[in-house]
């Protein structure tokens, strides 16, 4: 064999090798390229409907081979089940909220029917404790200038709680703040202690001024009863309605210890 023939054969083998490598590179398609193609061709499966019937996938739950159409049906069914569970939770929560607001509405009607303003603070305390299963509750009602404690007259008093209540634009829920009144709340619990606290400012109208007429304090032995991340819309509603009623209190009211 001549050198020219040998060189020609060697060159031909090289060309075939390069073609094979080029073909191999062309066939190497990664997942992202497949996804990109399908996203840019949304009508692919409509134009090639027979593919859905032929393509088979492994079922992630049982390991069985199923059609792509069957797999898609299972995915949609799972999503529907998840949406159903979410909807059921929302409906259950809505039912609970409605019951709570129905209770509050009934209480507000009682408070409006109370002709004796001096009886309101104790009545509101009793109503809220009974209807919302509170471990401890105390209402403080003070004068317009916050220099006189109307209810409970002669009770624990501190300017700190007045300042804090006036600074609140939404109820406070969370750990205790170290106020003197918290010790009074703790005395109402079986354990003699509270682990979480809710403080609701009571805003009402006196004469022509919209002022903070007092504060509603609720204590719980359960640390998770009142937490910083809990919703406060319902507590805010209680504060507005109770505050409107308690704005009628204009003189010191002593606790009935009988």
From TrEMBL:
InterPro entries attached to this UniProt entry: DUF484, GAF-like_dom_sf
Superkingdom of source: Bacteria
Secretion signal, residue range per the UniProt entry: none
UniProt protein name: DUF484 family protein
Organism the protein comes from: Hydromonas duriensis
């Amino acid at each position: 064999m001549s050198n020219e023939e040998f060189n020609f054969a060697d060159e031909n083998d090289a060309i075939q090798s390069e073609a094979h490598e080029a073909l191999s590179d062309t066939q190497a398609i990664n997942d992202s390229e497949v996804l990109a193609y399908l996203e840019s061709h949304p009508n692919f499966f409509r134009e090639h409907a027979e593919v859905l019937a032929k393509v088979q996938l492994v079922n992630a739950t049982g390991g069985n081979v199923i059609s792509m159409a069957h797999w898609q049906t299972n995915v949609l069914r799972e999503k529907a089940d998840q949406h159903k569970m979410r909807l059921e939770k929302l409906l259950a929560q809505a039912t609970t909220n409605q019951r709570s607001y129905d209770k509050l509405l009934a209480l507000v009607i009682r408070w409006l029917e109370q002709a004796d303003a001096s009886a309101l603070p104790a009545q509101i305390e009793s109503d809220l404790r009974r209807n919302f299963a509170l471990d401890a509750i105390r209402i403080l009602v003070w004068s317009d200038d916050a220099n006189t404690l109307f209810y409970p007259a002669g009770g624990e008093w501190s300017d700190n709680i007045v300042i804090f209540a006036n600074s609140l634009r939404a109820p406070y829920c969370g750990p205790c703040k170290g106020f003197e009144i918290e010790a009074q709340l703790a005395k109402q619990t079986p354990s003699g202690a509270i682990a979480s606290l809710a403080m609701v400012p009571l805003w009402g109208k006196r004469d022509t001024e919209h002022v903070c007429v007092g504060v509603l304090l609720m204590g719980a032995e359960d640390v998770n009863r009142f937490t910083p991340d809990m919703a406060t819309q319902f507590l805010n509603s209680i504060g507005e309605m109770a505050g409107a009623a308690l704005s009628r209190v204009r003189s010191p009211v002593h606790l009935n210890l009988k």
